[in-house]
Amino acid sequence: MDTKFLFRTKGGSLVAQKELPLCPVETTLMLISDRWVVLILRDLLTGTKRFGELKKSLAGISQKVLTKKLRDMESNGLLTRQVYPEVPPRVEYTLTDIGESLKPILGAMFDWGMDYKEKNHSPSNAAVAALGAALH
Q1: In the chain, N or C terminus with fewer CB closer than 10 Å?
Q2: Number of structural domains, the chain?
Q3: Region of poorest pLDDT, from 17-21, 54-58, 103-107, 130-134
Q4: Which UniProt keywords apply (predicted)?
């Protein structure tokens, strides 16, 4: 049986109403099982980013898909979108406390991936080491 989930902003206004699975593992998968969502989380765990920075970091993602993923993540309470009244407009994305709480999960994914790569003789590099430090 599904349960109702009402997500509210810090100010108390309703952001989204969702049907969440009863199983917490299934709920987590529903929110972060998409490749792009996990990679966006990875990038935002190192700090606030602008749209262009995310686009550049996520090789192969289209502008349309990135826009949709960011909107979905915002409506799910994983990140906030800050628009600055400038010309050209500046938009920044930052993880919420809920988004930040996924850090141990991504850290575990990083560790598992490193172990897998090492067992298959895949060398790592300094950039990967720096990412590992950010995820722990």
Answers
A1: N
A2: 2
A3: 17-21
A4: DNA-binding, Transcription, Transcription regulation
**Contact, 76 vs 34, CB < 8 A?**
no
pLDDT in tens, 47-69: 999 999 999 999 999 999 999 99
pLDDT digits (tens, 9 = 90+) for 14-31: 445 567 788 999 989 989
Check if the beta carbon of residue 96 is closer than 8 Å to that of residue 82: no
Retrieve residue 55's tokens. 């686009």
Residues 112 and 88 in one domain: no
Pair (66, 113) in one structural domain = no
> What's the pLDDT at 88?
87
Are 88 and 132 found together in one domain?
no
Phi and psi torsions of 24, nearest 5°? -60, -35
Instruction: Provide φ and ψ at 71, rounded to 5°.
Output: -65, -45
| pLDDT value at residue 57 | 95
Radius of gyration over every alpha carbon of the chain, rounded to an integer in angstroms: 16
Side chain identity, residue 127: A
Rounded CA-CA distance 66/40 in Å is 9
